[in-house]
Amino acid sequence: MLLERLIDQFSICKVQDFSELHFHQTPMFVGYTHEEISIVCKSDSVPRHWIEREDGWTCIRICGKLDFSEIGIIARISAILASKNIGIFVVSTYNTDYFLIKTENFAQAAEALVQNGYHFTE
């Protein structure tokens, strides 16, 4: 399976409302429930009025479009990283999955994934 490390640094935030979100920015992920509005965005684009914020994330994207019948993709990757005590934050879209890993753990995570048959784009 081919993986791509996205260049930007990312932040995971909780925000009060949608007023400062720039939906044209990519990638941006929004989770909206009756309890909160959570976003993942580039660290240099975090809204000014955040409630909680966690910086220092690197994002890995699974390349290509995944079929809904493919089972266990997130489970396999998360198990590999969990065996190295590396925490993740996962976001799924219609086409694919994104794994956010603390930047200080990226080299170890990438090495573990490569050792388990995953490949990174150049």
- Low-pLDDT regions: none
Number of domains: 1
CATH superfamily: VC0802-like
In CATH, the architecture is: 2-Layer Sandwich
Structural class: alpha+beta
Mean pLDDT: 92
Q: Work out the helix count.
A: 2
Distance between the termini: 14 Å
β-strand percent reads: 35-45%
Q: What is the CATH first-level class name?
A: Alpha Beta
Characterize the largest beta sheet: strand count, sense, and whether it forms a barrel.
7 strands, mixed
SSE string, helix = H, strand = E? EEEEHEEHE
Calculate Rg over CA atoms. Answer: 15 Å
Principal-axis shape: globular
CATH topology: VC0802-like
Topology:
Blueprint: E1 2-15, E2 29-32, E3 37-42, E4 50-62, H1 73-82, E5 89-92, E6 97-102, H2 106-115, E7 119-120
Parallel strand pairs: 1-7
Antiparallel strand pairs: 1-3, 1-4, 2-3, 4-6, 5-6
Pfam families: ACT_7
Protein name: Protein containing ACT domain
InterPro entries: ACT-like_dom_sf (IPR045865), CASTOR_ACT_dom (IPR027795), CASTOR_mTORC1 (IPR051719), UCP008459 (IPR016540)
